[in-house]
Amino acid sequence: MPVRDLQYPTEPFSTVKRHKEQGSYSLETIHQIVNSCPMLHVSFQPPDSPFPAVLPMIGQMGSFARPSADLGEVLDLYLHGYVSSRIINLTRDDPSSPGLPMTIAASHLDGLVLALTPNSHTYNYRSAVLFGHAAVVTDAAERLYAMELITDGVVPRRWAGSRVPPNAAELGSTSVLRVTIATGSAKIRTGGPHDERADMADDALRGRVWTGVVPVYSVLGAPVAAGYNRVAPVPGYLEEWRNETNKDTEEYAREKAVDKS
Fold it and tell me: Considering the domain boundaries, does residue 40 fall inside one?
């Protein structure tokens, strides 16, 4: 564990400007948001397009050189992709460059914050943005490390609970990108609604408009077995993770719906 809270450097393009008090540059905070997000949105600029491209991808923060590294340490982002996809091909165009520039966004919605007026409505949320350069992983050991990291990032212990290692055809159709992070930032909003002083002084308004927070959290449903499944009951590691995740996400959303004095 790092002896201090490491921070990403602030750059003009990464600095939180509105509600600066909600911003964070802590590596641990940012990496936790990214690693707990089931879908990342990755943007890059194709040279043959007038518009940036955005792809939903799965990925995880980790360190091949230091597999036991803490979330608060310097980590790379590994992304899973199809071997001949556009984003993979673009990273191969200039192997001497630092890599394909990209921006990665992760977001969690934790609550609907309902105020006295529409203009004061907001969300409770956690969001993180990373900026870095992507390169295709060519080392076989690092690629297997990243594939296991990403798989277990979706469902912990699933890699060991499935047929591994991947066969030659699977390895031939799959590529992994390593994104070396230059900087990043997070923005987090918690608590209840905050209304204008004039509205708070309007007793009639406060007497007819409900205010508060509707907690929002994902629920992992009961597993549905495949038609050809021969394993019963559901593996313990899957049920334990599902129950713990459901409990934690609900508790977080409800806890963050209340203002802390």
Answer: yes
* Per-residue pLDDT tens digits for 8-60: 999 999 999 999 999 999 999 999 999 999 999 999 999 999 999 999 999 99
Radius of gyration (Cα) for the chain, nearest Å? 21
Given CA atoms 156, 160, 163, 164 in this order, what sign does their dihedral have?
positive
Chain segment 233-259, per-residue pLDDT in tens: 999 999 999 999 999 999 999 999 999
Tell me the residue range of the domain where 160 lies.
20-195+211-216
Q: Is residue 68 part of a domain?
A: yes
- Tell me how far CA of residue 41 lies from CA of 16, 27, 28, in angstroms: 19, 19, 20
Decide: pTM greater than 0.90.
yes
Cβ proximity of 125 and 189 under 8 Å: yes
Positive or negative torsion for Cα 158, 164, 165, 169: negative
Indicate which CATH number applies to the domain containing 65: 2.30.110.10
Instruction: With beta carbons less than 8 A apart as the criterion, state whether 82 and 73 touch.
Output: no
